[in-house]
Amino acid sequence: MVNLLDAELGDIEKTSHLNTDFISVGVDFFRTYADRTHHGKEELILFRELSKKQLLPEDERMMERLIQEHIWAREAVGRLCAANGQYIQGNRDAVKVIIYELGKLTRFYPMHIEKEDEHFFIPAMEYFSQEERSAMLDEFWEFDRNMIHEKYRKLVEGYEKSNA
Ligand SMILES: [Fe+2]
Ligand SMILES: [Fe+2]
């Protein structure tokens, strides 16, 4: 998705034309998949379990940085979504915000993923026993299992509210 959005960003810069449907798909991907499903498992399960451990200062700092980055990414996606909505309503200036936020997000995600994959998750596993690791895996599966239901429950509830 980051590669696709990066290509979309290139198109916007070249043509000043915006595919608002695709930006909405990107926003939904970031919110539902990256933020709720993926960061959800990190924050609500892995980081929760790590907080119970005596972490090395560098691991503690890295976990704090990752949490801050998740917050930062959520805010950027919020601004991207708002600007896309403004563009749809006819505000052509919103394209500047969209270019800015898309540029930030497409640069941010590969760095964030590399930080986690190369510098955090493997050393972090050392804090856990085999039993603790498999308990977390079970919880990850359960978390994921619920996501599809949560996604579509929210979608329906959103429409119910707007029709009420
Ligand atoms: Fe993360
Ligand atoms: Fe991650």
How does this structure look, described?
- It is a single chain.
- The protein has 164 residues and is an all-alpha fold.
- The chain has one domain: Four Helix Bundle (Hemerythrin (Met), subunit A).
- Helix content is 87%, strand content 0%.
- The longest helix is centred in the C-terminal third of the chain and has 34 residues.
- The model has no long low-confidence stretch (mean pLDDT 96).
- The chain binds fe (ii) ion (2 copies).
- One fe (ii) ion (FE2) binds next to helix 2, helix 3 and helix 4.
Topology:
Blueprint: H1 2-15, H2 20-51, H3 57-88, H4 94-119, H5 121-125, H6 130-163
Helix pairs in contact: 1-4, 2-3, 2-6, 3-4
The protein binds fe (ii) ion (2 copies).
One fe (ii) ion (FE2) binds at residues 38, 42, 116.
Essential attributes:
binds fe (ii) ion; mainly alpha; 164 residues; 0% strand; Four Helix Bundle (Hemerythrin (Met), subunit A)
Q: What fraction strand? A: under 5%
- Global mean pLDDT: 96
Return the CATH architecture. Up-down Bundle
* Element-by-element helix/strand order: HHHHHH
Ligands (ions, cofactors included): fe (ii) ion
Secondary structure tally, helices = 6
Question: According to CATH, what is the class?
Answer: Mainly Alpha
* Rg, alpha carbons: 18 Å
Structural class call reads mainly alpha
User: What general outline do the C-alpha atoms trace?
Assistant: globular
Measured between the Cα atoms of the first and last residue, the distance is 34 Å
Overall helicity: over 70%
Number of strands: 0
State the low-pLDDT regions, or none: none
The CATH topology turns out to be: Four Helix Bundle (Hemerythrin (Met), subunit A)
Major β-sheet annotation: none
The total domain count is: 1
